[in-house]
Amino acid sequence: MSIDRVFEALASTPRRKILAYLNEGEMTAGEIGERFDFSKPALSGHLRVLEEAGLIVRERRGQFVYFRQQPDRLANTLFAWASEVCPVAGPLKRESQGRARSLRASAAEAGARDDD
């Protein structure tokens, strides 16, 4: 799932409204459809785009299909995008990676000393 798919999904007003409704809790396709003036195939298309972007998940229960939002996916994607366009993101990312390498090296050295 790419960041482009998430932004493509968010580019549509009806899809943003669907996400807003699902933010309140899970809903069936019928419950979502009652809130819009478009056809069932159009609703299905919007739900598919949101699902392919990883923003919602579906679960079949009996004869109904329930949809719910994946809030972490949206938050993580927006954070990743903001980090890419932020002018200080590159240096901060390199600093974080350097610290992580340093911590791993320290842990490896400590483990080697413990083995002696």
Automatic annotation (TrEMBL):
Domain of life: Bacteria
The entry's keywords: DNA-binding, Transcription, Transcription regulation
CDD domains xrefs: HTH_ARSR (cd00090)
Molecular function as annotated in GO: DNA binding; DNA-binding transcription factor activity
Keyword check for Calcium: no
Comp. bias (Low complexity): 99-110
Region entry Disordered, spans: 93-116
Domain HTH arsR-type: 1-89
Keyword Transcription recorded: yes
Name this protein carries in UniProt: Winged helix-turn-helix transcriptional regulator
Organism: Marilutibacter spongiae
Lineage of the organism: Bacteria, Pseudomonadati, Pseudomonadota, Gammaproteobacteria, Lysobacterales
